[in-house]
Design goal:
InterPro entries: AraC_XylS_family_regulators, Homeodomain-like_sf, HTH_AraC, HTH_AraC-typ_CS. With 300 residues, this protein is α+β, with helices and mostly antiparallel strands. The chain contains eleven helices and eight strands. The relative contact order is 0.13.
């Protein structure tokens, strides 16, 4: 999450995007990036909370940019390509990542995760007090003391539950630059992939396939698949499946719908294909997953 030596000063254009698959695994973790600008977008399967510290930061998520001020918290699902594209001199970002499975269990109301799986991000100003919390969690999670790590986990859960109940409607505007930098060929390539990822996030519950995903970016399916793989490290079809499985896990936890209804509402064409994909990718059948996670939720 640290962008290396690159630094964007106030008033300059965002750092050009480099193509290339970057898939990361973070799990429950808290980090500080003092050089947050990223030349290359990345993705992961965690829910990501990013707090701007010491100045403004520009977030790019599925091709949509938003500039936020110091003390603003941005919450999004990391499966969509994203990066920090620019930052004020001296600005840093404190990150909290929560595995999607945990976020689904913790979000009792279901409001936050439902929005994130639709490709939304929540932009929440006035969260400067979270900086001290994130710093404490970073020390507790990395300190090797199980009791402290458990306490940090419980506090992170409380934060997500509170956000789900109290957060306002999402804010997802472009940065609004009057004179944006000229778009390069690499920018166009990445933008089209971002358009496809955003289309999948918004429409995965519908009977769409690779042809429809490619059409959203005005590309031939073969070209779209190659471009998507080059930027994200996966295919449109695999990403579509990931979105549907994530939504199915959410529905299993926050609704009483039976497995057939969950399969339909998550976008699967049949219960048998849903059952097979879920068991293969999640590691257990849907009903068993529901029982185990609900029991674990009730223990806390």
């Amino acid at each position: 999450m640290d962008g290396g030596a690159s630094r964007i000063l106030a008033g300059s254009a965002p750092e050009p995007l480099l193509a290339g698959p970057v898939h990361e695994e973070h799990g429950l973790a808290c980090r500080l990036s003092t050089r947050p600008v990223m030349r290359r977008a990345h993705r992961h399967d965690d829910v990501e909370l990013a707090l701007a510290v010491g100045g403004w930061v520009e977030h790019e998520h599925a091709g949509r940019g938003v500039r936020v001020d110091d003390g603003t918290l941005v919450v999004a699902w990391g499966a969509l390509p994203h990066r920090v594209s620019a930052a004020a001199d001296g600005a840093a970002v404190r990150w909290l990542t929560v595995p999607l499975a945990d976020a689904l269990e913790w979000d009792v109301e279901g409001r936050l995760t439902a929005a994130l799986l639709r490709g939304e991000r929540w932009v929440l100003p006035g969260r400067s007090a979270d900086a001290a919390r994130f710093a404490g969690w970073a020390a507790d999670l990395a300190g090797g003391v199980p009791a402290r790590a458990r306490a940090a986990r419980l506090e992170a859960r409380a934060l997500l539950e509170r956000l789900s109940v109290t957060a306002p409607a999402p804010v997802d505007d472009d940065t609004g630059d009057d004179d944006p930098a000229p778009e390069t060929a690499g920018d166009r390539h990445a933008r089209r992939v971002a358009e496809m990822a955003a289309f999948v996030a918004a429409r995965f519950r519908e009977p769409v396939g690779v042809t429809e995903v490619a059409a959203a970016a005005h590309l031939h399916p073969a070209t779209a698949t190659a471009a998507f793989r080059a930027v994200t490290g996966t295919t449109p079809g695999a990403f579509l499946l990931r979105c549907r499985l994530a939504e199915a896990q959410r529905l299993l936890l926050v609704t009483g719908a039976d497995v057939d209804a969950v399969a339909r509402r998550a976008g699967f064409g049949s219960t048998s294909s849903f059952y097979a994909a879920f068991t293969r990718e999640v590691g257990e059948p849907p009903a068993a997953c529901r029982r185990r996670r609900l029991a674990r939720r009730d223990l806390v």
